[in-house]
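Sequence, please.
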């Protein structure tokens, strides 16, 4: 295994990068989904405001119809006054007319109130639309950045996997077997590059005897604590 330190370390570095990219690429769709939800919600706020405006219009039309029908009723009653013979009937009719006049006033006030409400809503819809437009725009920008990142990371991942594939062909199958079986047990980090007399992964001090064996370099030496393969620095790892 010692004869291929450089390739093995490169392989470990590649795999670390691949794990990182994989993790990010799994997070990205969730972040994109959350952004889509927010974009939908912001766009929907305009629809809701528009819905309120159209409801207001419907109610105003109904109220205007009511005004017209009460007016017609008042006209009828006024005409009926001409054919009334007694004072008592006349007074009663006038009272009826007065009641209808009140109803008309109330209905007219209702129309005015609805018109005032509509004015306010028209002002607000402008704000709602503008706010929604700005929010959607900002969210869309955020989304574009994520999409760009996704594309880049997918490209990088493809490239790293290709490099890994090529690198593996350069490594002796027996070395690869040891590397991989150890990789599973060590969370993908089977090698520890020793700079001084400490294990670089578990930071436990390496015994002098083990360091001597390691320097001899004629067999595979494992960290006595974390059981990773110890590899001596300096090794030039090319990117
Ligand atoms: Zn260790």
């Amino acid at each position: 295994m010692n004869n291929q330190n450089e390739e093995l370390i490169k392989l470990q570095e590649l795999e670390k990068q691949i794990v990182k990219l994989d993790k990010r690429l799994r997070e990205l769709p969730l972040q994109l989904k959350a952004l889509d939800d927010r974009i939908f919600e912001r766009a929907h706020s305009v629809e809701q405001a528009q819905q309120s405006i159209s409801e207001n219009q419907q109610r105003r039309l109904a109220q205007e119809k009511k005004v017209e029908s009460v007016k017609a009723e008042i006209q009828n009653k006024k005409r009926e006054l001409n054919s009334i013979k007694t004072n008592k009937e006349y007074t009663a009719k006038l009272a009826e007319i007065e009641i209808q006049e009140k109803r008309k006033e109330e209905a007219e006030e209702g129309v005015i109130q609805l018109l005032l409400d509509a004015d306010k809503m028209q002002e607000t819809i402008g704000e709602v639309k503008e706010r929604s437009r700005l929010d959607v725009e900002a969210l869309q920008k955020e989304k574009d950045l994520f999409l760009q990142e996704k594309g880049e990371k997918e490209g990088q991942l493809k490239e790293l996997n290709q490099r890994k594939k090529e690198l593996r062909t350069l490594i002796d199958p027996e070395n690869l077997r040891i590397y991989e079986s150890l990789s599973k047990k060590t969370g993908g980090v089977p090698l520890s590059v020793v700079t001084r007399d400490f294990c670089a992964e578990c930071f436990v001090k390496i015994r002098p005897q083990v360091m001597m064996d390691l320097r001899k370099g004629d067999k595979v030496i494992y960290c006595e604590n974390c059981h990773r393969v110890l590899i001596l620095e300096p090794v030039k790892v090319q990117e």
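The beta strands are 191-194, 229-232.
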